[in-house]
């Protein structure tokens, strides 16, 4: 079944990027000249997604404004030949997809945020793109498209993974996997934030999954993690894996973690180097800077 719907959980508090995220949602922090969440919506649209639900929270109204008209700006720029590109750029987020919003009224974790989308999703498979993970694949298929194709081929839920350095696995999760075909694996088990002796592999889930609608039943059944005081989405994925099956795909793409300061800087540097307008000048600047700091 074709994946038509996606959700973007963007209701987290963003404590790791404070104070930048105090009054600006971290999902709205820019990468060169666009907010992070626009790259994520563009990825979904490029993969053929038609309907997108963004899960927000109090103080995140800037996200809604970004995907809405700005009549004053539009009136000012419309018809001005020298500013046509800027006009086109501000119209893109308005027209790119059908975008809806819902609030997660209490910040009770990712599983709870995803659960807010139950009615919107109904009875069809859907994509989840985490709101602080920007993943690009400039010369190839959008990463969420790679997952959608695998979902359609194998007919079960799929998580997007990459190998991360062993010292970092404890910040993410660790998967027990069995190779299936090419870059697709069967996922037997997952452990959230493992200690060194609990690591099963260095494959971690990095911001993209495609789920069957039954995932909402599994979220309901998942016990609250006592230490965290919230339902871990990872635990719901384990229930799904054990009862219905779950695959993992070692996706092709570059991920930038916009939830931490170094990730934001890497995203800005690398995207600036690829940017049409400033790429060449930025490259010269970086080369000069590298000489100076050697
Ligand atoms: P994170 O755990 O990376 O986001 O969640 P966070 O809670 O904002 O991070 P810190 O630790 O406080 O810095 C991954 C994604 O899930 C969303 C976040 O917005 C992010 O895009 N999320 C997280 C929610 O929508 N609701 C939540 O309750 C928690």
Task: Explain the overall architecture.
- Helix content is 36%, strand content 24%.
- A nine-stranded mixed beta sheet has the order 5-4-1-6-11-8-12-10-9.
- The protein has one domain (5-279): Spore Coat Polysaccharide Biosynthesis Protein SpsA, Chain A, CATH 3.90.550.
- It has 294 residues and is an alpha/beta fold.
- The protein contains eleven helices and 13 strands.
- The N and C termini lie far apart (54 Å).
- The protein has helices spanning 36-46, 61-66, 71-77, 84-95, 110-115, 118-121, 143-154, 215-221, 233-243, 261-274, 279-293, and strands spanning 5-9, 30-31, 34-35, 51-56, 98-103, 126-129, 133-136, 157-163, 173-181, 184-192, 203-211, 246-250, 254-257.
- Bound molecules: uridine 5'-triphosphate.
- Residues 9-16, 55, 104, 107-110, 112-113, 130-132, 259 line the site of uridine 5'-triphosphate.
> Shape from CA axes?
globular
- Derived from helix and strand composition plus strand pairing, the structural class reads alpha/beta
First and last CA, distance = 54 Å
The side-by-side strand order for the widest beta sheet comes to 5-4-1-6-11-8-12-10-9
Domain tally: 1
Alpha carbon gyration radius: 20 Å
CATH architecture: Alpha-Beta Complex
Largest sheet: 9 strands, mixed
Small-molecule binders: uridine 5'-triphosphate
Q: How many strands in all? A: 13
Instruction: List unreliable stretches of 5+ residues.
Output: none
Order of helices and strands: EEEHEHHHEHHEEHEEEEHHEEHH
Helix content: 25-40%
Can you identify the CATH superfamily?
Spore Coat Polysaccharide Biosynthesis Protein SpsA, Chain A
CATH topology: Spore Coat Polysaccharide Biosynthesis Protein SpsA, Chain A
Task: Return the CATH class.
Answer: Alpha Beta
Q: pLDDT average, as an integer? A: 96
Query: What percent strand?
Result: 15-25%
Number of helices in the DSSP assignment:
11
